Amino acid sequence: MSFSYLPGTPAQLQGPLSRFLPPLEAGVVSGMLASHDPDSVLVLDPFGTSPHLVKEAAEAGFAVLVAVNNPIVRHALTQLLQPPDPADLQASLAALAQLPKNGSRLEAFLLDLYSTTCNQCGRIVTADYFVWDEELHEPYLKGYACPHCSHAGEEQTSEDDRRMARSYERRDLSWAQALESVAPAGDPDRRHAEAALAVYPGRARYALVTLINKLSQLPAEDRSASAMNSLLIAAFDASDSMWAYPEGRARPKQLTASPRFRETNVWRALERAVTAWDASRNVVPLAVWPDSGLPRQGEVALFSGPVKTLSETLPAGLRAVVLTSPPRPNQAFWTLSALWAGWLWGRDAAQPIKAALHRRRYDWAWHAGALQLAAHNLVDVLPPETPWIGVVPEAEPGFVAAVVSGFDASELGLEGWAVRADDAQAQLRWMRRKMPPRSGPMDLTQMADDVVATALRSRGEPTPYLILHAAVGADWAGRGVFRALWEAEGGQPVASLNLALETALGSRSRVVRLDQRQEIETGLFWLTDPETTEPPLADKVEQTILESLRRAPGRAFLDLDREVCARHPDLGTPDRGLVQACLESYGVRDEAGLWSLRSEDEFESRASDALTIRSQLQDIGQRLSYKVNGGPRQTWRNVSGETVFTFVILETAAVQAALAAAGQGLTLVIPGGRAALLAEKARRDPRLAERLRSGVRILKYRHIRRLAEETTLTRDNLIERMVVDPPEHEDPQLPLL
Predict the structure, then answer these.
(1) 0.85 cut: is pTM over it?
(2) Could you give the residue ranges of the DSSP H alpha helices within 556-598?
(3) What phi and psi, each to the nearest 5 degrees, are found at residue 586?
(4) Residue 340 belongs to what H/E stretch?
(5) Which terminus of the chain has a lower count of CB atoms within 10 Å, N or C?
(6) What is the pLDDT of residues 50-94, one digit of tens each?
(7) Domains along the chain?
(8) Are 468 and 501 in contact (CB under 8 A)?
(9) What torsion do the CA atoms of 719, 722, 727, 728 make, to the nearest 10 degrees?
(10) How far apart are CA 422 and CA 439, in angstroms?
(11) How many other CB atoms are there within 10 angstroms of residue 250's CB atom?
């Protein structure tokens, strides 16, 4: 069954926790649900990793049931569905600010922790942040805006700044207090909680513990208010040492400080949190499952628990579509979530995810097993015809293999898959299918080798490891290989897949890695015997874009991108960058952002242009006393009959056939608008780049026109003139031209 990748708008996640939430593309969820009837099916998300997935499904008119076991993600989901009132956030901040602390207000006390001296006027100011060198274990930069002299910027820290920062690094009473609500003394998870707490700079830890301790002085209604929790979660998220400098937002997976990190002023983080939670979004009705019963259309029912417990609450015969973003192992976020939940709501609230504290490493084999158990619980209670759809952002080989092998072991048959490599996004679809495991001996390496060869021939161009890895995984899922591996003693499906593929790719009998300097997971692979392959995928995508623009002008990028992906499904899913390069080569975008064909690339106009260039080339050759033969492929021979030049006149950037035919003095003649696209193809394909560097000349149409008008052109200066393109026409994207 053919399966098309469904593009969306690239994720622009903002606000608290965004560095930990799955970067799903907007529009994908509603697009995948378009073939389903919201009147008759419920959307079921058993993992609840993405608040944005849930919200988009509800806004598409579907009733949604979501299980969220992580209390921090649960809070983020409620804030997304029912955005906080900025006035409530401001009131919560004001309530915190006025709490007494050491004879002062809490706001002033916390700001004083970040006191420094203005390098311009010498007066005391509050730093907005410090930048630390983890190796030196001290801050070396400070960022501030002086209210006295208006000086602002980043400056070197002073010895007083560094001494003050180091004074908070000892493990004092605040250290013990921060652990007490999560793992008190004697708790076997105590040392793991300490490792999580160590990711905070000492000053931030002291400030946060001070905040948490002062909460008990607030009225009960203020202390438990959703707005108050939103402020504090934002501060927790902003204050750790995983904020790399100067890159800004990263996507940390492990609890390790960045080599250089930004230490944020905790009170400033609270102030920014007032506007960090987006209050401009539509409100989505929210209910509690199972107390409230099945949700209505456009409503979300939230279950606070794991998949296993959710499955026990579902009614028989539930008509649903399972649409989810499978969880990706994230030791940093899961561990911090346990810590934060304990701080805000106590030990019991942290209990559901406390296991994250003592697991320091999540390998893909463990994750495949966890997904298998979770999916199995649901498969048994949902009707067999229930479709399962997985959206996998941050797709990498191990993650995709864990999802595919884990679901396969739960009697979910993989029906379709597609991977967009440059965006690291995968999409998969399953249906329940009882299929016996493959029996008899299996040569896993040979099986992987065959799949890789077929995939490369189908794509017709060098292909990244991620796509080949996914292709082998999909093949094994369809043939019962994973189930056989699961049932084998000590079976390790993900490890077996990795070993078989790497052995096949390393044998060099059918496949070669084009850049040996690259790690295997980032390299490109191609056939040692590339006979009988399809035309390059890049050329087919180029043709699709050209046909689409000629057929219907005034189209949005997303519309065109989806058409291209629909016409090149499965293995043929093109990169977004390639689609963009093709559009920029042939199209022009109006003020509304809609793309139409350039007038010069209309069929009649371009065909006429090519004929003119052919005629001008012929005239130039004859004027220089060469014998000219041919049409779109012209040869110029000298008086001895030897071919001196071979010109191939092209209207597109599909140059592979011309390069394969070769010819003495090969020169490709292309429209100027194809130059950047050809450069993009060369970037994607090292074979093409090497071929273009090996003596092939490339001329643009406009340069042929100039040569035709040049009166001083001779045989002696022809090559010199051919390689000269005046500066105003230089194309920095393709120096070869």
Answers:
(1) yes
(2) 557-567, 576-586
(3) -110, -20
(4) helix 331-345
(5) N
(6) 999 999 999 999 999 999 999 999 999 999 999 999 999 999 999
(7) 1-82+282-328+338-434 (3.40.50.150), 88-276 (no CATH), 537-597 (1.10.10), 603-729 (3.40.1350)
(8) yes
(9) 160
(10) 37
(11) 12
